[in-house]
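TEACHING EXERCISE
Course module: macromolecular assemblies
Task: Read the component lines below, then compare them to the predicted structure of the full complex.
Student: A.B.
Group: 4
Components provided:
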Amino acid sequence: MPSKQFSPIQVAVLGFALSLMSLAPPASAQSADQDWSQTLTAAAGQTVFFNAWGGDERINAYIAWAGDRVKEDHGVTVRHVKLSDTAEAVNRVRLEKQAGKTSKGSIDLLWINGENFAAMKAGELLFGPWAEQVPAFGKVDVVGKPTTVLDFQTPTEGLEAPWGMAQFNVIVDDENAPDFPTDLGALIEWSAVNPGRFTYPQPPNFLGTTFLKQAALALSSHQDALYEPVEAADFERVTESLWAFLDALHPNLWQRGRNFPASGPAAQQLLSDGETAATLSFFPLEGPALVTADTLNAATVVKGFDGGSIGNTHFVAIPFNSSASAGAQVFANFLMTPEAQIRKQSLDAWGDATVLNEASLSDAQRAALLDATNGLSVSIGPVLPEPHPSWTDALEAAWTQRYGS
Amino acid sequence: MVALVSVPAALALPVLVVLSGPEALVQAFALPGYAKAAGIAVISAGLGTVLALVLAGALLSGVAGRSDRWLRLSMPPLLATPHAAMAVGLAFLIAPSGWLIRLLSPWATGLDRPPLFSMVQDPWGLSLAVGLAIKELPFFVLLALSATRRDSLQPAFRAAISLGYDRHTAFAKIIAPHLLKALNLPIVIAFIYGISAVDMASVLGPTTPPPLSVLALNQVSDPSAEGWRLGLALSLHLAVLTFAALLILGGLVATMRAVAGRWASNGNRRSLVGTALAAASLVGRGTLVFAVLALLSLLLWAFAQRWRFPAPWPQSWTGLDWVWARGLMSVESLNTLWLALASALIGLLLALAFVLAERQARTVTTRGAMAWSGLAVLPLLIPQMTLIPALLLIDLNGLRLPPWMLALWGHVMFTAAYGYLTLRGPIMALDPHYRQVALALGRPRWQALLLVELPILLRPIMASLAIGLSVSVAAYLSTLTLGQGRIETFTIEAVSAASGGSRRTAAQFALAQAFWALLFFFSALSVPDLLYRRRRGLAAHVA
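Instructor-supplied answer key:
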């Protein structure tokens, strides 16, 4: 690759980025305010290309609404680039970095978490830190919801701003499977009686991988090892019970466990068609929201798992070569405001749980938040933290070796 | 053409070898399921191409010497439906909870819940092969129709009939050899498309393991740098596998041709092949009905709100607001339009110039002709998954074009290649006397071309333009990756909706996409009819 001279613009942007980095943590509230008003000034008139998965119409509509709001308030234009896979964008940023394109990158803001974030952080593909200096971050519940600053055990360090909370759950068609178990061990028996009526998205799809993690946490007698790097553990011993469980379960899954749906939505289509009786989800309000949208049967219930369900947070991050990093911060800030978070939690909009500390909200805002979900709770029992990220690849590889080839 | 189309395509492979590195190239072999994934890829693409070819031949032999109007008119809708949409429609038709079983349940099958038996996603990719065959069929039929219309073939066919050959045997002995020759390149292209494209494979193909193309795409989607390099390595493997399979295919065809030559001149008036073709012609018509049913079910889904097993029809309907929301005047619509019009026109001009240059060069050897053709269709010979990231890399390292220009360039590579494919036959077959007479009457070369030859060629030119338009409308990777996410088209929307798994949204966007493709198709094809209302004789000279 030819070495490249920096252009004056690149130097200016680099300087700007460095100056932002040196500002953390803010010296005083006053200078923070001043910085924010500078960011607002720089943002006005910018166009933010927000690269985010576009497979859900309700989420797309929500993003369009939020874009209209920041246009109104701050003159920032948001264009939603609808991805079918976030990794496509991650790889594009990597290509740009390899080619020495350090400014005017094609992506300004990215919907991200977990593995993708870990890869971008490790590859130094992110702009920042910025996320903890924008004003709306103040109301984020970093104590009660520790995953807002710890993404799959990777510290966010201000490189991404929390957007919403997720907790693993299962959406059950109560008419066809009133006795669907919440104890994973009992799932083997249930499937033997109801062959072909359950499946999970194929790992490395994140829902499928989370199912493996959830089962490993529930069944293994070496839980602690799952929170340490996988290299330090005796992989065979820790995962023995997981494979025994899957070996017994697979013959009675949908299509006898020979094929698996490619994604969460594909698995959802199977439930909606009536081929299966239950499907996995990461949003406790997704089930009720799909009933509201008349996609699922009215007799649909949402269940957590015995002993707790894995929970995490999803974020937005700015690539290192964003051409509108000020506008991106202004939009990300808006996404964390009570106004945007309340609407996001509404069943009519998206049904995605807030990252904010409810105690920091006004009475009216708290009432609106409860109203948004028709009084339904966004929590389905205790939250299990994500295992150490190194387990993700290890479990996926072992699964593919055993069942995917 | 060479600078814009062939050279960048030729650069793609070396660029990717460097990028993925030798280590990843070796590691790729060790991925779980690698061998079976490669097997599924070859079987489904090979079987799909052969099936499409046999069915196309059978359909044509059914209409040889008769009116082919119904066949001609039923092909464009099938050609214009995007692969992904057709896959979704087919899967819905034959799935355990699919339309066919719904129509029979519970009154005939006794089922009130979907059966456990499944025809889609079989472990060796046979349902995928059928899906590919259905999409390749119209491509072969349309190209073959123009090849069989050649003046010299029809009298020979009629003579054979009057000598007592049954029609299918006569077709197999007289028209089929010409057809195979004319379809040489299209067969290669269909096979490459089948083995490398993921849109159909990810819906109809098996998953444990998936076909090699899907395996490569999954791996390219790995966010870690090592995983990504492994994905690039896999897509290079796919390219090598494709070339190897094509070499074997070429050898088989050569052997078959030798055998077939002896068989064609053995004098038998009736033959097993003829009977088989007659049967296949029925299967071909059945396949068309099947494809139309799949399209129909897609149409229903576009308007369905809730539609659960075993309801034979949707239980509640959506409003029509989506027609306007995703409307005909939306950003997606305008982007689809300008990209298609610009890239199809540029591609057409490049292809035209290239074919005329090839004619001028008067290549006589097969090797020479192959070199010309190879250069023109190079972008189609490399799997898109490999070609597109390489192009982006080339651009990032030197040109830094604005996204719209890069996307347009990406589209032109494909429209020009398809343009060449559709124009070469008619132009080479054009009677040289027209030009000679014009030159003899003292007209300069350019006038002979512009005033005499091109008007005669208007029909194939417009057909080629129509194909270019639909290629551009359906392009996904080149729009997303080269447009760097900044150019929203219907296809981008349709594929991201399909990734969300919503059959309804996928169906709606597929309809919007097919709407433009069909509109382009029929308007391009009706231009010659309008212009030549009083000059019908022209049509007889070229297909």
